[in-house]
Amino acid sequence: MYRGNLILFFGPDGSGKTTLAKLLKQRLVKNGLKVRVSWMRGTHTISLILALILSRFSNMRGENNPYFKIKMPKCKCFWQFLEFISAIPIILLKYEIPVLFKYIVIGERSYIDLIIWISTTTDDWTFLNSFFARFLLKLAIRYTNFYITADIHELMKRRSNEVNEVFMRKQYACYEIISKLIGTHKIDTTNKSPEESLSEIITELLKQNNLKELKNK
Hints:
Largest sheet: 5 strands, parallel
Radius of gyration: 17 Å
Number of helices: 8
Shape: globular
CATH topology: Rossmann fold
Distance between the termini: 16 Å
Structural class: alpha/beta
Order of helices and strands: EHEHEHEHHEHHEH
Strand order of the largest sheet: 2-4-1-5-6
Number of domains: 1
Helix content: 40-55%
Number of strands: 6
Strand content: 5-15%
């Protein structure tokens, strides 16, 4: 018998989270576990609808949010609140509730990515100390977290066609701050194959006595 659990990956764009989440799921499913991969970043539900509307106006075009090509409204606090509230249904439906039904949930992106996303897109580092960020961080540290990263130049090489360098460097700096704050296990994929990184993740899970079903498999 096993209980549900959350394994949360977080890290900058291009670090390899998606690949590692898929590989870990394959390994766990092979061992007879119920597994799902969940994804989040920011701009969900209500904030997603509003971002899509704003992207239609020429005076709202910008690079604060590089995926919607919009700049943030001047009322940053309101937008931060909106992003936080909009993510609650995602957190419940994709992460917390499946655990109650004995699923192993692998967060390809997680609560910490949401913190970084809001801070970076609103260009407000003080958000890292806000009530919303502290609440999300407390949710995250109840589970097993892995900081998936790579050298900044390697990240730019992998994602240069999607994210500009200024945004990437701000994002990277925020991740470094958070990872040191919570002291999570760091997986640097710069010079490792996906299989080598996966092996490191499984070793750490077993070391923490997490997912004992992987032993001797």
